[in-house]
Each structure stands twice: as structure tokens, then as C-alpha cells.
């Protein structure tokens, strides 16, 4: 997107609670200060996260746990803190990448849209193994009242992606916070940090063939994982690597079994 702009050719269809139509002064501020951040984040999200499941293996007290996060295209505008009028959430990412001008841009009233944009350059660090998983927000009122379950904190401690668990979509990214705003970073000092040992991406092995009508079809051969990054500060021996692999394999078997149950219910 060369610059953020809106046509306002039509009456705005719907303004969600807590949002307003972008003002000219706000558009100028975004284009002067944050347009590169937005474009870089959109490219990163599209290439590395969109429609992917990222698995984080982390130390949980004295055990190893796995957090599996489903990054959908529809989650992207929530992290960015804006909406496009007359466009579905899952269309915003492609609109930005293809320089498509919306009828109206909707920003948050509480100005958190700008705080999010300030921190977007740290988003790529969410896939680095020296980032952290945070789970206990009982003493952080600002996060607790949002009813969110866990988060991924970037390794440079500039931003945090907050996660929500749902029966339909599993664990998904629900919001993004700039940790350099207000006293949030101080409040998080007492929240236990769970060290990430490895970051993986779920994958599906498929075979493509032509049916009797010469149309392309695909068969799923099963699920697999690809390693994105390993925390070599902690994973130093074959035994360490084997422990990591066992956690991922157990998750893989569980996910495969759940998929079978959905396809072939009793």
C-alpha cells in the first residue's frame, strides 16, 4: 500500500463500537510515520503466518508444553487495530498488499491503533526462539478484563500478541499490544515467562492427480511439521532434541486423531 487513504464514495455501512472514520490528520500521521511498518508487517504476516499453524514448544515449570496457534487472514486487522468499511476481516490483508483503497478506514477511538503500528517492526521476532510464552495474567487488570488466555512476547520485549482459545478455531491471535506504552511492561514484570525451546510450523503432505474429467484433485497423506527455529541456548544435546521431538510428535498424533474424528464421527 503506497499510502493509507479512503474514497468515502458511499455512506459508511457500519461503524463498530469503539471505532471512528479515519480523519485527514490521522491519515497524514500514518502515512508520514507508519506506512512502512504496515507494509512490512502485511508482507511478513502473508508470507510467514497467514493460514498457518505455528507450534511453540516451551518450558512450563519443569515440563515441556506445546502451544499451537492458528494464524488466519481474518485475524490480521485485529492485530493492526483497524478495519475497512464494506470489507470482511479476511480481505483486509490482501487489500493492503494489492494497494486496494477502501471506502473508509476505521480506527480505534482509544488511539491504540497508533500504538500497535509503532511496534509492528518487532513482529518478525515472534518466530524467534528467544521469545516467551506468558499465561498467567491474574494480576494484570488491563489484559485480564479482555478475557484472553495467553500471549507470545517478542524477544526484544517491544510487543505482545495476545491469544484467545475457541472451540471452533483453536488458539488464535486476538490482539497486539505495544509493551512500551504506559506501565504495561512494569505490570508484566511479575508474570512468569515460559522460555520457548523451539518454533515449528504444521504442514500437510499432499499428492496431486488428475481425475477422470482431467480436473486436478489432491489427497492428504498426513500431517507433518517443519522446524522454524530452535533455542540453541537450551537445546544442546541429542537427548534435548529428542525430548523436543517427542512433544511435537505427540501433538501431531493428537491433531491427526482429532481430524479423523471430525471426518468420520462415530
TrEMBL record:
It comes from the Bacteria. Residues 38-218 form the Phage-Barnase-EndoU-ColicinE5/D-RelE like nuclease domain. This is Phage-Barnase-EndoU-ColicinE5/D-RelE like nuclease 4 domain-containing protein.
